[in-house]
Structures
1.
Amino acid sequence: MGFPHKPHPKETVVLSRYFGDADARTYDGWVKRGGYEALRQTLTMDPARVTDVVKASGLRGRGGAGFPTGLKWSFMPKEKKRPHYLCCNADESEPGTFKDREIMRWTPHALIEGCAIAQHAIQAEVGYIYIRGEFTEPLTIMERALAEAYQRGVLGPDSMGSGKRIDMYVHRGAGAYICGEETALMNSIEGRRGNPRIKPPFPAAAGVFGLPTTINNVETLAAVPHIVKRGADWYKGLCLSNPKSSGTKLFSVCGHVRRPGNYEVTMGFPLGELVHELAGGMREGRTLKACIPGGSSVPILNREETESCKLDYEGCVEKGTMLGSGGVIVLDDSADMVYQIMRLARFYAHESCAQCTQCREGTAWTTRIIQRILAGQGEMKDLDLLLDLAEQMTGKTICVLSDSCAAPVVSGIKKFRGEFEAYIKGARRPVLAHA
Amino acid sequence: MADQELINLTIEGVPVRVPKGTLLIEAAKQAGIMIPHYCYHSGLPVAGVCRMCLVHVEKAPKLQIACWTQVAEGMVVSVMHDEARAARKSVLEFLLINHPLDCPICDQAGECELQDYVFQEGRARTRYTPTYAKRFNPVEDFGGDVLYVPNRCILCTRCVRFMDHVAQDPIINVSERGDRAYIGIHPERQLDHPWAGNVVDLCPVGSLLSKDFLHKARAWELDKAASVCTGCSQGCNVNLDTRTNVVVRVRPRVNLQVNRYFMCDHGRSQYRWMNRGDRIEAPLVEDHGDLAAVSWDHAFVRAAEILRGAVGRAVALVSPHASTEALFLVKRVLAGFETTGAFRVDRVEGDAPLRGVPNLALRSERAPNVTGAVLLGYREQFADALKALERAAVALVLDESLAGVTREQLSAAGQVIYIGTVLPEAARGAKVVLPVANVAEEDGTFVNRDRRAQRYMQAKVTPGMARPAWWVLGELLGEMGAGGRFGSAAEAFAWLAQEESAFAGLTHDALGAQGVVLSERRVAGATA
């Protein structure tokens, strides 16, 4: 549902069914809507069986990488020798993405239930919901829901009378984008500087506090109760294109559309329809120019690619981009692509954790070059330099923040080179006073 | 360990066989290849942040960092692969965009890893066009001996990791983010940990500087000699850096058995006295109540006369800063007497440990050769020895400071022979004064608190006619017809090893650069 808009008939409403329905926020309201049935059912199941169900559903990580969730859970040690942990990544900071915020705002118990099921599956008594520092309203709602869940015996030493202990904490971040990177998030929970860790070891071997950890995105975990309740086959069947991508996905549509908001569609839904129909299309007299389909970190699509892109993991890769977090940034013909790309690069330069050389220096340098082009002081060789820097910023660092800065730059220059050249040649008036 | 699993791999075409778990960067050393790096240091936890050590590994999807990747059977690694070279060239370019090119005024120049690698593999010209200003932060005094020049910092975090994990006093960090990042210090603390000076050595560029060494010398003007620290009984291995015959810096020399890569700030400060100007520069003999300069031959004749002419008791006041060789030879010189041999040591309250390294501390016992002196029969009973002077026919002093000892006290002994570097007031009543080299001017050995006998080498020349104590005492023994006359400290040591069971079978060559623990050897000898 494109809250605050009415749900569009083409949406497949699962996660967003109660968006806008304040009663669903409470424990009683949630139970009235079928909440916590899945958890009750899960607690009677063998943990490995729960993982199998999720595996069979084809659910893949909704945070950006699209890693199969059940497979990730199965990496956890089968025999529990030391404490296991679940981390829920609620540090939604990807520019253009605002789906997790809505899940937490309207259906906090869906997330708590999803976490509890996951904790049972991976044998983690403790779960951390790491919530973005700026999310003050979702934080309040989550904390209230968590207190209620403890009060009503969903969480605590005897979860729903099963005799199993399930504890959950909300941990508030301090507003660093990089803390959404899973290992940086774990460092942050531990009270350290939020720097990504070198891998291996992967979290399933040594995660938070050096102990086996699974980390999942809010949307991923919120989908789990539905899968348990309605079955893996049902979820697997939610597919319009490639069978490797199943289920529904929330897309946060923003930018130059008439009805920005969250839209939940089945995997494989056409991006063109999402933009033109669900989100209301372009403003009067405007035409589509470009679209970033998966949050700011993925390559930019031009108009033709946008019109023909299918919204699933494979469909996006086919167009040379990624499904990412599902933050759809739409740009019409009034957009200055050079400026937009500078803004993205500046964001990454600001958020680089400063560990890896290429990222620390490269993001800032890239920003300066584009700013200089925007100031009318660019040279043609700057474009080659940008591409060369981008190549050295890709696949060379601990995490992918550097790659994320490079991706829009490379695709931007490739697809909108004319706009860069217009600034360089003086055909376009500078928009910045100086670099 | 004999049963350790060994892995075969190829690095730059060279087959290498190393234990499982070895990091590529360490395995490469066996192939004779130093993979360029900044953040990696064998004495610190791995950070993997500088990305300089990216190497090409066949079948890997992308370049791998050699400081974190472990060896695997059949791995084919290339350091000079085009992709790896391009990556290094790029890292160097990135590092230089915010690094000032102030090498001409930078202390690190000549021993700077950024300078070296840029010269090897960097771009000739920057593409960071000159309209951009470089990041600027003012120089900050971190306290202790450390100055931080943030503009030169490449954020390798070696200093932070040293303070966090080795000193275990986490008072510095990486502050801020992105290209604004710098090394920050706790607002209410100074970098005055007793071992903090190591961050200056660890810094691969000229960002952390020693205030003591600031602008003293250019790296290429320095000569280096392997030595052993004289600051305490720990026996940290050091290098003495000299510039035109003046010791200007003491830095740690790697010895994994003793000090690993580190030394304390107190040890670093122990060099000024090595350059003292008030040295005895000629042998002196008593002449009508005064001391007169004479030739070495004359002095030896006179000293031998004294020693031959006296009978009964002798007192030796020795310094625990003297070489094992000299301490032994003093014993030989006084072999005909009933000798009381004594020394004293400066002691302070408590050790100052480097927490992250087992059995490494600035020891409360502030002399390098206390164990050597004890093994050779000297006792820390200085006051008793002073009393014994009254009944002694001969007193022999080996570079003891004689602080608090009066001329009358010392002269209570029938005859005084003073062997030393400087002439204290109390020694002015001596019959013979023999000038000797200090630790920086001779070869010798010390025995540390863990009975490790370690060699030190000559770093500079002796002033005037002063000679190493092993030579002086050897010549004196020769004059007395009691053996001696050595061509080197090693020859003196060979005699010591013959005579003293604790040193049995040892030679200078056997001690090597890292020393040998005496007790271990004795046990080994007994079972053999």
2.
Amino acid sequence: VSQAVAPKADCTLELSDADWLEMTSGKADPQKLFATGKLKISGNVMASQKLEFLKKIDRNSVAAPVAAAPVSGGGATAAHTPMAEKVFAALTERLQKNPQLGKEVDAKLTIKVKNPDFTQTYELGKANTTLTLSDEDLTALAKGQTTVKDLYMHGQLRVDGDLAPLHRLGIFNKLF
Amino acid sequence: MVKFSKPGASDGYEVMAGNAIRDALKDAAVDFKEIEQAYAGYVFGDSTCGQRAVYTAGVTGIPVVNVNNNCSTGSSALFMARQVVEGGLAECVLAVGFEQMEKGALGSKFTDRTNPLDKHVDVMNKVQGFNQAPPAAQMFGGAGREYRWKYGTKRETFAKIAEKARKHASKNPLAVFREVLSVEQILASDEVFDPLTRFQCCPPTCGAAAAIVCSSEFAKKKGISKAVQIMAQSMKTDFATSFDNDSMIKTCGFDMAVAAAKEVYEKSGVGPKDVDVVELHDCFTTNELLTYEALGLCPEGGAEKFILEGDNTYGGAFVTNPSGGLLSKGHPLGATGLAQCAELVWQLRGQAGERQVEGAEIALQHNLGLGGAAVVTMYKRAAV
């Protein structure tokens, strides 16, 4: 396959067709393939550390036969509908129905949502905690598809100020 | 040790090493002819760079052993030299470490074989994924993330370590980064891997350092004055906990450091409370914080309080990294462990100038490499 358009093709990856499909469908990790010798890299090795994008290729376009003509406008990632306002409406409703939940958080929560940007504040206590995350991740959290800890450890949830309330964010659980 | 410098601005590795060796010989008033063996540490370079470096100071046919243990290479060379002297196999041995580094973050040089850190990277992939940040920053930054999750440490607390490092380095003419920085400046520098910003990561550095290790009989015989004694030393490599705990803190060598420190405290008969000055492996601010706890300078979970109360600097319980540490003095991998040794020797002799820790009598060194090895050493002023 030679479809790449890059300023300078200086990093060459060699791997089996099966591993390529595994990698681009997110089942195999490029770093792991590399570490186990299934993925060989020549040229600019440091560029190989920027292969995260290969894991985000749309499943459908991956499944399509390689021989097929290049599809235009396939869309690399499924479009995400901004949900922040709905998430916060549901959260506000939950906190109004059950004020005890808010008392347990015991902090002033500032939630900065990115892409698209939206900021929401909840006065639930004295401690000051600011959370920054993407609309997509906030949605996944509200849907119970991920956890606060997982988002935090993966660097998708940034926390400023007091971190202790981080352990008391069950309020987001299954909002939908 | 020679003055550390940025990549591209240094002498060749053999010139730096030769200067460091000659300085050490002169300092000890020992002639190269009296050196019976040499242990030469470096990470990046072809085979036998150690000989080439030692030959710059003398070509006498002695055994020269090349030592490679990632970021703990320098102290591993010292460990070998100390063992051979303590074991009575030699009386006077040279340990030298040097590194001529390239610009940019550390990366793998050999891509056609198993990555020696693959087991560590596996844990990281599982716990936090893998992204485009420098791998070492992801490892130690991840350990910092995990610590914050456990104990709620503020971002500013890590930055305070870098602020202290710069303050200390401003008094060290051999350091690379001597400009004092505020916590605000440190936090405002580019984000490398949350919670690490650029000024919380040690820079690639070129440099060399050397030590002459001899028996006390040899020192007495030669009338060597101002000697410093190695009270105890321990090297530990990974335990199973590095890989089976899904913990970045453990994967980054916490348990190795704990075990090495424990052994050193037992062997030397002095505890953390007796220590006056510490050089520890602050490759990233997060690792300095974790190391306070690994060495028992403060209780587990107590590092934030320890930092905020100033117990890691002049006037506090310990002075950690008076040299400026890896963060500010620089981190030439092979030289670091011996540069830490040099700083502590000067501190114990009262020769550290403006950065002298008043009345320093007992010194502790911690040098860590992922892959991995932790070397902990206890020193005191020798009564020769």
